[in-house]
């Protein structure tokens, strides 16, 4: 980098992008009903996936543009063979200060130690229910015990916070809100309730199935134990982090539907086949893989990234006229 200060990735609305989500595979051993259809998924040919070297090269370029945080996701990222090697490579890139992982937890018990040793800083484990039957209804697999094995393994390691992602679908798992609230009082987990979003073609989404953040907060406060108090405020929007007024436990909210945080969005995504997406709901992608494989030099790739980020969408239009679903499923984009 010959001593010059890094460029900053900025979009035309003044937002600075410093957070990159990378999907390392579109494959998954779960079939969560909000993410992908039960049958008929066609996986990418493995040759289509970016190699670890290609990912590391892109991350180095993004780092010179001010990106400091990386999240590895998928599909199920732990289905990508030897993911720890990629983490080791990313850990060595100057400017990258935080490497996180979002996983369904199935392979975590066997891999957690080596991932943390490789340089993983933070982890999010998806677990939509504490009840085996409801869990199976949500993810169409009978694997709750495997997720718990993974969480137990992570709890023994020096990695905090351990976030537990819970997508709520009204009528299926929303009766467990209170139970999840009790969980964070006894375990070192931050439960994050994620509003169900319309993405892909086969998720049965409707506004009635979304459980808005305000409703969850009211229900937890009505439990009569301790009350939720915000840890972080964003103007007049609901906070996205809360603790209890006796200090025990933390709960987070991703209110993408009821209170979108687009105006402060600092992230972009790379799909497992090397397409840059500037919004989860983008209808347009920038093909970085063909540049990487076509012998294009670093400066040209960086300029392409700068130009694409400049055009980052102002925000999504969920539940408003003009909203168009992206064709890719969440697993194909990298959630
Ligand atoms: N397989 C990993 C997992 O499930 O954690 C990583 C990929 S998954 C696509 C990333 C996150 O997206 C998960 O927490 C999942 O619950 C969330 N997600 C998937 N589809 C969603 C939807 N339609 N609405 C809200 N969140 C969704
Ligand atoms: Fe797989 Fe994650 Fe999608 Fe569930 S949410 S089907 S675990 S990629």
Write the layout of secondary structure elements.
Layout: E1 19-23, H1 52-64, E2 69-73, H2 83-91, E3 98-103, H3 108-118, E4 122-126, H4 132-139, H5 144-155, E5 162-168, H6 177-186, E6 189-195, H7 213-221, E7 228-234, E8 237-244, E9 250-254, E10 267-270, E11 275-277, E12 286-287, H8 289-293, H9 298-310, H10 330-333
Parallel strand pairs: 1-2, 1-10, 2-3, 3-4, 4-5, 5-6, 6-9
Antiparallel strand pairs: 7-8, 8-9, 10-11, 11-12
Structural features:
335 residues, single chain, 19% strand, binds iron/sulfur cluster, binds S-adenosylmethionine, TIM Barrel, globular, 10 helices, alpha/beta, twelve-stranded mixed β-sheet
Task: Write a structural description.
The longest helix is centred in the first third of the chain and has 13 residues, at 52-64. Strands 7-8-9-6-5-4-3-2-1-10-11-12 form a 12-stranded mixed sheet. The protein contains 10 helices and 12 strands. The chain has 335 residues and is of the alpha/beta class. The chain is globular. Helix 3 packs parallel to helix 5 (144-155). It has a single domain, classed as Aldolase class I (TIM Barrel). 28% of the residues lie in helices and 19% in strands. Bound molecules: S-adenosylmethionine and iron/sulfur cluster. Residues 28, 30-32, 35-36, 74-76, 104, 126, 139, 330-331 line the site of iron/sulfur cluster.
């Amino acid at each position: 980098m010959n001593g010059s200060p890094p460029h900053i990735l900025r979009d035309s609305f003044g937002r600075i992008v410093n957070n990159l989500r990378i999907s390392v595979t579109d494959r998954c051993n779960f079939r969560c009903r909000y993410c992908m259809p039960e049958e008929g998924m066609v996986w990418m040919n493995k040759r289509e996936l970016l190699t670890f070297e290609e990912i590391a090269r892109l991350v180095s370029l993004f780092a010179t543009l001010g990106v400091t945080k990386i999240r590895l996701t998928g599909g199920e990222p732990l289905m990508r063979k030897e993911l720890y090697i990629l983490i080791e490579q990313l850990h060595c890139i100057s400017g990258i200060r935080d490497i996180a992982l979002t996983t369904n937890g199935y392979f975590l018990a066997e891999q957690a130690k080596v991932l943390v040793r490789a340089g993983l800083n933070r982890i999010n484990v998806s677990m939509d229910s504490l009840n085996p039957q409801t869990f199976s209804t949500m993810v169409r697999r009978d694997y709750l015990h495997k997720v718990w094995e993974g969480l137990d393994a992570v709890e023994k390691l020096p990695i905090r916070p351990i976030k537990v992602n819970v997508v709520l679908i009204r009528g299926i798992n929303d009766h467990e809100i209170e139970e999840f609230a009790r969980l964070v009082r006894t375990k070192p987990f931050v439960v994050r309730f994620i509003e169900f979003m319309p993405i892909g073609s086969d998720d049965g989404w409707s506004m009635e199935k979304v459980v808005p953040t305000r409703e969850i907060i009211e229900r937890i406060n009505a439990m009569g134990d301790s009350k939720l108090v915000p840890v972080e405020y964003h103007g007049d929007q609901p906070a996205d982090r809360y603790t209890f007024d006796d200090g025990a436990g933390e709960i987070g909210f991703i209110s993408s539907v009821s209170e979108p945080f687009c105006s402060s969005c600092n992230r972009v995504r790379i799909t497992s086949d090397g397409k840059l997406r500037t919004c989860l709901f983008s209808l347009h992608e920038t093909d970085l893989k063909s540049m990487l494989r076509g012998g294009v030099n670093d400066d040209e790739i960086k300029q392409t990234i700068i130009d694409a980020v400049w055009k980052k969408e102002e925000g999504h239009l969920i539940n408003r006229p003009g909203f168009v679903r992206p064709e890719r499923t969440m697993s194909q984009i990298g959630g």
